[in-house]
Amino acid sequence: MQMEISESDSSLLKFSPPNTKHTTMVSAGQLLGPPTQNTAISVDFIIPQTKKETDNLLMMGLTENCSPTFLSTGNPCLDFFYHVVPGTSSDDLIQRLELAWAHDPLTTLKLICNLRGVRGTGKSDKQGFYTSSLWLHKSHPKTLALNLKALVHFGYFKDLPEILYRLLHGSEVRKLAKQAWKENKRAKRRSPYFKRKRDEAQEEEILEGLEKIFVSEEEENLEMKTVEKISKEQARALRKEREISKAKIALDRYNNDPHYRFLFDCVCDVFAELLKSDLEFMSRGEDFKISLAAKWCPTVDSAYDKSLLICEGIARRVFPKESEKEYEGIEEAHYAYRVRDRLRKQVLVPLHKILELPEVFMSAKQWDSLPYNRVASVAMKTYKGLFEKHDKERFEEYLEKVKSGKATIAAGALLPHEIIKSLDEDGGQVAELQWERMVSDVAKKGKLTNCIAVCDVSGSMNGTPMEVCVALGLLVSELSEEPWKGKLFTFSQDPQLHLIKGDTLLAKTEFIRKMDWGMNTDLQKVFDQILEVAVEAKLTEEQLIKRVFVFSDMEFDSARLNTECIDLEPEEEMKRGWETEEETKRGWETDYEVIQRKFREKGYNKAPEVVFWNLRDSRSTPVVANQTGVALVSGFAKNLLTLFLEEGGIVNPEDVMRLAIAGEEYKKLVVYD
């Protein structure tokens, strides 16, 4: 059965196409043959009016390289799970979020938390999670507020004030601040005054020989000091003005927006409850039970506190007015001042000391007492330069202990490509050790038996997706067992199986970058080569490669006859290049359908299982939700690899998605509105 969509069906056409050429779509269950000449038009998101329509709706089109592809899995929740990646625009994310929530609210709530998940099977997509959280607050405020205790287990406690901050100042506030910071940095580089200050600090010997033409050295120094004093005073005044403005915004929002007030109160409740219990643990000497709430709780007069006025809310709950006689009869302002001060002195400071936070030792300049084995992974990546500068001998001694196995280094919260990216920063010592720790941690959970990675670094993957592809491909190669350990396939017109060479992480990544990648993505030829080797060696199905990880944006090259990717009308595009009825039917086979057919033709009942791992915001969908032997996953994190470490086969994409959100932490989530 085919479902016709006419241009008059305006209720179905709610969004415009993305930056791709025309998108040809057909629908209604599994596609049994080529679309007829008048069955489809070019649209983007098609929004079904009922859940049944959603379940039955399947669409087909072409990749950016003119290979047939599905444009939806047929399950909006799976579409959200597969298509939302770091870099997905807020508009696209919210569109997919709305469709998914209409289909299955609880599953969608779990998928939102899966975006944030730093541990388990989460994707570590912090920005995607924040965008989703703001949508939740707008559309389902009770569900967000009443799940806060559960939410922090997917990320960290700092997420709570950050959500409040973005609600007050806009979803793009961090992005805009980062842009402003970069522009200011560039302006300083161009400024003669700041350039002179930088050069004096870094290249004093050069400046000493420069001839001062216009003013004497004394006059120049006096002018610089005057400018510096005025600039500091102006900056101080501007900061104070901004702080007052932000405080007014927070107060007005709290007083006039009941949904924001409810969320704010719930955030304060979470922090206060945990801080009080941590104080109890501290008093009983049960330090190992203390949470990280104190680490991420905004400190008094911090940026969060000045913007949200949150420390007062937390302090009032930790030290309620009725709890102490000394608070009786005093003014509210004085009470607020007293409890804020107590929060700092009696709660946060002692808990910070017990947690042995590196920032405590750094701010006190107690470098020789800093416990490096307690430094978290992201903090180690951020502060390693300071450790090297201020405590070189102890820090290098610690790294040597890590190498010899006498000490450990954290790596859990880092993404694989972030570790590789930091190789250039300190000779690669810390990155090398963090990579080894990451591989070891994943390997302890299981091995990748009979698996191989295929890495797409074509032109469409330029930028971060390419870096992620290299990192995840290398990780899979190191987790794989022989005979595939240390090997990976590359995309090109002539794909090759490479043995990665090098004894260090730096050497391995350099080897991968120098390999002959080509600029195209012919998935068919990769599997043709696997099949050719199997046929020539007369391998049984048990001896075949079991699973292939495809790290890509899924914009595969066309494997059809006589194809050139040119602009044609949809009807002409559908008919082009196929002369017989059989060729026409095959013309609309997706890449995975072609792969399956080829293996059947050579006597194999099934092709290798495929994990399509999406790394870029793209519409292409290789298979539908119920395709056996295939998984659809996405993102930059290593965590989802753990889904494929156990024995047994992949059931289908929906099953893998359900497995990703099946942990105990997901069972605590509840939809309230």
Protein described:
51% of the residues lie in helices and 5% in strands. It has 29 helices and eight strands. The strands form two sheets. Strands 5-4-3-6-7-8 form a six-stranded mixed beta sheet. α23 (464-479) links the parallel β3 and β4 (487-490). The chain starts with 50 loop residues before the first helix and ends in a 13-residue tail after the last helix. Residues 1-57, 201-220 and 558-588 have low confidence and may be disordered.
Give the end-to-end Cα distance, rounded to a whole number of Å. Answer: 37 Å
Q: Helical stretch count?
A: 29
Which segments are poorly predicted (pLDDT under 50) over 5 or more consecutive residues? 1-57, 201-220, 558-588
- Corresponding CATH superfamily of the largest domain: von Willebrand factor, type A domain
CATH fold category name of the largest domain: Rossmann fold
Could you say how many structural domains there are in total? 3
Fraction in beta strands: 5-15%
Mean pLDDT over the residues: 80
Please give the CATH architecture of the largest domain: 3-Layer(aba) Sandwich
